Amino acid sequence: MSEVIINVLGTAQDAGVPHPNCFCENCTRALNDSRFRRLAASLAIILPEKKAWHLIDATPDLKEQMARVQMKYEMHSKLMESIFLTHAHLGHYPGLLFLGREAVGASDVPVLAGEKMKRLLEEQAPWSQLTALRNIDVQERIDGDSVQIDPQVRVTFIEVPHRNEFSETFAFLIEGPKKKLLYVPDIDRWDQWDHELHDICSQVDICLLDGTFYSEKELEHIGRDFREIPHPHMTETMDRLQDLTEQKEIYFIHINHSNPAIHENDRVRNMIESRGFYIAEDQMELKLS
Questions:
Q1: Is 106 within 8 Å of 137 (Cβ atoms)?
Q2: What's the total number of domains in the chain?
Q3: CA distance 111 to 141
Q4: 109: helix, strand or coil
Q5: CA 98 centroid distance within chain
Q6: 145 with 119: CB under 8 angstroms?
Q7: How far apart are CA 151 and CA 148, in angstroms?
Q8: Does the predicted TM-score (pTM) go above 0.85?
């Protein structure tokens, strides 16, 4: 049995930490000390024995995230075998541009995405240049489609409700030789999903779930209306999944710069961990074998 590793390339909401034009406590600390930076949420599926890797979401931080994979797993100059895209928001697809003629000049990298996302990449500049020059090969997938990226690894598309201004939105189920991982970085409301959160989480071993905001009070503090940027709050998610914490590893990811859970020694972080939940960290590894 070959080793299968999920490397968490980033854990922040789309704009990262520090957030642009922000000097809140979290952002100021990250500006002054790079150890507190968080890159935009993304995963790499690593097959170290085969010197191969696959990417989930091409973030604005792709240049750095790609280098981290290549250096850590001794795959220098080895591009990803494929890219799976969740949706067309800032933190999830602009990194594709690094594969274009101004940078890598890649050739036919498979990009797996929904129908609307495929159309966007083929018809709208500057993405259309990537497809016209065959830097990327966009392949359409729908809800429920499974892709066997390796004899031991399968990735399944699961559509989720989100602000789909430009594309549909997907979560991913990643099945390895021994363990299954559910990745849901963005969703509007658990109640709007065709799947019941508790049921789907009970069927996997590891969950990486939307942790953008801790509570509604946090949004009030930064002067944003939760109706403009709907995400389930961490508090709600924990209440829904509390009885699974002894059986499953449940992490929060896609964390906004305003979220108090970023603080390692904060009361909120301690409370989350005391309930048996975890905050995902950049460059952490999760093994599916």
A1: no
A2: 1
A3: 10
A4: strand
A5: 18
A6: no
A7: 7
A8: yes
The b-or-e profile of 167-197 (16+ CB within 10 A means b, else e) is: bbbbbbbbbbeebbbbbbbbbbebeebebeb
The identity of residue 284, as a single letter, is M
What's the domain range around 166? 5-287
For residue 266, the domain's CATH number is 3.60.15.10
Report residue 61 CA to chain centroid gap: 12
The pLDDT tens digits for 86-143 are 999 999 999 999 999 999 999 999 999 999 999 999 999 999 999 999 999 999 999 9
- Chain centroid, CA 217 distance in Å: 24
The per-residue pLDDT for range 38-91, each reduced to its tens digit, is: 999 999 999 999 999 999 999 999 999 999 999 999 999 999 999 999 999 999
- Residue 72 vs residues 36, 102, 161, 193: alpha-carbon distances, Å: 20, 25, 35, 37
